[in-house]
Amino acid sequence: MAIRAVLFDIDGTLVDSNDLHVIAWEEAFAGADVRLDRDTIRGHIGKGADMLIPSLLPTADADTCRALGERCGAVFKARFLDQVAPFPGARDLLARTRESGRAVVLASSASASELDHYLDLLDAHDLVSATTSADDVENTKPAPDIFAAALRKLAPLSADEVLVVGDTPYDVEAAAKCGIATVAVRSGGFPDAVLRDAGAVAIYDDVAALLADFDESPIAGDVRA
């Protein structure tokens, strides 16, 4: 079945922010007297706070998780949000997708305020048909909620008519739970083996490489053919 809509992750996919999120989390944990090395944190980037904190601190209670999430969000917005830059080709890929007749949706574990900032940064308000963020759902990636919410906004399209573009195994896993295939990009820093094991149907270096191969990519084809 032809692809009629593409759900784009943002952090690590369209914008270069993953390492900045790692540092923000490191500082948030350190403020609670929890020392975690950056490589350990990096392996969980792509999850929202509701999923990341229990993965790294399984014994943390709800109040601790809430305080850590709020602290990380405050640090990131105060110190790092303005440092985030779009990856080369990011807006052009959104535009090419829209010009091809496919709906463009931003589906992120970021907060709604961060998503709005990225829409401005990418100058993409006129390209995007819908958005979903952490504020729209009960659970973030790798739970399916964010992509499930996007699918509801795209009704009557089916999962077979939708494709995800993301940079983490958590994007791939969340999409798969909704029956959606994922094209992965390496710009988020995850190894190919991890992305493939999660179920990515194709892997590109970054969004610029995906744009260059657009007509031969799964976006323009039938990923289940």
List the helices and strands and how they pair.
Elements lengths: L4 E4 L6 E2 L1 H14 L6 H5 L6 H8 L5 H19 L4 E2 L3 H10 L3 E5 L4 H11 L7 E3 L12 H9 L8 E5 L2 H9 L3 E5 L6 H7 L3 E3 L2 H6 L13
Parallel strand pairs: 1-4, 1-6, 4-5, 6-7, 7-8
Antiparallel strand pairs: 2-3
Helix pairs in contact: 1-4, 3-4, 8-9
Task: Please describe what this structure looks like.
- The chain has 225 residues and is α/β, with parallel strands linked by helices.
- The chain folds into 2 domains: 144 residues, HAD superfamily/HAD-like (Rossmann fold); 66 residues, Orthogonal Bundle (DNA polymerase, domain 1), CATH 1.10.150.
- The chain is 44% helix and 13% strand.
- The chain is built from 10 helices and 8 strands.
- A 6-stranded parallel beta sheet has the order 5-4-1-6-7-8. The chain has a two-stranded antiparallel sheet with strand order 2-3.
- The longest helix has 19 residues.
- The radius of gyration is 17 Å and the shape is globular.
Give me some keywords for this one.
Rossmann fold, 225 residues, DNA polymerase, domain 1, two-stranded antiparallel ribbon, 10 helices, six-stranded parallel sheet
